[in-house]
Write a structure and sequence with these properties.
The chain has 403 residues and is of the alpha/beta class. The protein is built from 11 helices and 11 strands. The protein has a 7-stranded mixed sheet, sandwiched between helices. Strands 2-1-3-4 form a 4-stranded parallel sheet, sandwiched between helices.
Length: 403
């Protein structure tokens, strides 16, 4: 493949406008995704259509334009800002005489580069195999009957059938591994619940500043970069609200539960960022990790306050949260990067007096006290509910003669 002087792979980006309102944002994200994957964009070919072409997606005329660009610039890779069917990808590869990938393949490649933990690597491989399963189509001369591969498969099995069987076997193995890791995660959550630790998950659009905020809150050293999907593996750390711990006297005259029941710590989890058109195979593969979000007591929804499309990004994140069963978990919207706007830090409360919006800069730390206050109040509110529930249960048990 052709390499640029900086050592990066070169590519032509292709984006077709079908009239979507977020077309320009989607194209800009494709540029950033390519950059994140280590790909240098040499040209961008755009077009307009009412609907995708069944055979070539972009239509024969546009594909001819792409082919001329590829030939003139000797580009080894073409990246489509869309999901291509197996047939479309095969036809495009033949017509363009170069490698063709779609948006999903690009994101999967980035995830493969970024996965560090064992669980993350297993989840990425599972997503890749699920994607590959839909693209096992008959190609080349190896599709004839494989009758003499003794010990590998039954007689008369085709190469395609063999590939599918091997792929299915690997998928089942990876699923079993994820189930074991999921069980470990459940055990950890139960331990936190027994210790009465408030569980908080940081969610948000990719590159909104989640990891920077996570490092600020927990004094951790999670990798931070101005790139899409800089963080892939979920990381959890304990934090304290410093100086806002509840004292034993805060329990007033209630003798039950004991003071040791009070929440003295918060566990914060940093999660993978979301993006528009996030591949369903990735959401499915990362479901075990994202369950950490679905089981949280509170979500810190980090928003890039300096982004003109922040409302659309909030909607995209909420869409994924709904898909993983986390739509009903209480949220605090954290508007980050206010230093880029010159906006002062502040908090806003809802009609019930609860802090539901915090404006801060995770990079400078301005406004972080407002977020700590919000977390402290959320923790205190849950403690109050828990005290009432436990007192009610105690009274109920006494009425039934249970000591």
């Amino acid at each position: 493949m052709r390499q640029t002087s900086a050592g990066a792979m070169a590519a032509v980006l292709v984006s077709i406008d079908f009239g979507e309102s977020d077309y320009s944002d989607s194209l800009e994200e494709l540029r950033l995704l390519a950059e994140t994957a280590g790909v240098r964009t040499l040209a961008v070919v755009e077009g307009k259509r009412q609907r995708p072409d069944a055979a070539l997606f972009a239509g024969s005329g546009k594909v001819q334009e792409i082919a001329e660009t590829v030939e003139r610039m000797e580009v080894p890779l073409v990246i489509f800002n869309h999901d291509l069917s197996p047939a479309q990808m095969r036809n495009l590869t033949t017509r363009l005489n170069t490698r063709v990938i779609d948006r999903t393949m690009l994101i999967l490649d980035i995830f493969a580069q970024r996965a560090q933990s064992h669980e993350g690597k297993v989840q990425v491989e599972l997503a890749q195999l699920r994607y590959l399963a839909t693209r096992l189509v008959g190609q080349g001369v190896d599709m004839g009957q494989q009758k003499f591969a003794v010990g590998a498969r039954g007689p008369g099995e085709t190469k395609l059938e063999l590939d599918r069987r091997k792929l299915d076997k690997r998928v089942h193995l990876l699923k079993d591994r994820l189930e074991k890791l999921k069980h470990q995660r459940v055990v950890q959550r139960r331990a936190r619940n027994r210790a009465d630790v408030l569980s908080v998950s940081i969610v948000g659009y990719t590159n909104a500043g989640k990891s920077t905020l996570f490092n600020r809150l927990t004094r951790a050293n999670v990798y931070v970069a101005d790139q899409l999907f800089a963080t892939l593996d979920t990381t959890s750390r304990r934090m304290s609200t410093e100086g806002q711990e509840l004292r034993e006297g805060d329990a007033e005259d209630i003798e039950y539960p004991p003071a040791s029941f009070l929440r003295k710590e918060i566990v914060v989890s940093d999660t993978v960022g979301f993006i528009r058109h996030l591949p369903h195979s990735l959401v499915a593969a990362f479901r075990s990790t994202l369950e950490e979000t679905a089981q949280a007591d509170l979500l810190l929804h980090v928003v890039d306050a300096n982004n003109a499309n922040r409302d659309d990004q909030i909607a995209e994140v909420n869409k994924v949260l709904t898909e993983i069963g986390a739509a009903d978990i209480p949220q605090i919207l954290v508007f980050n990067k206010i230093d880029l706007q010159g906006t002062p830090p502040s908090v806003q409360r809802d009609g019930y007096g609860r802090i539901d919006r915090v404006f801060l800069s995770a990079k400078s730390g301005a406004g972080l006290d407002g977020l700590r206050l919000a977390l402290s109040e959320a923790r205190a509110a849950r403690q109050a509910v828990a005290r009432v529930e436990n007192q009610t249960n105690r009274v109920s048990d006494t009425n039934y003669g249970i000591e």
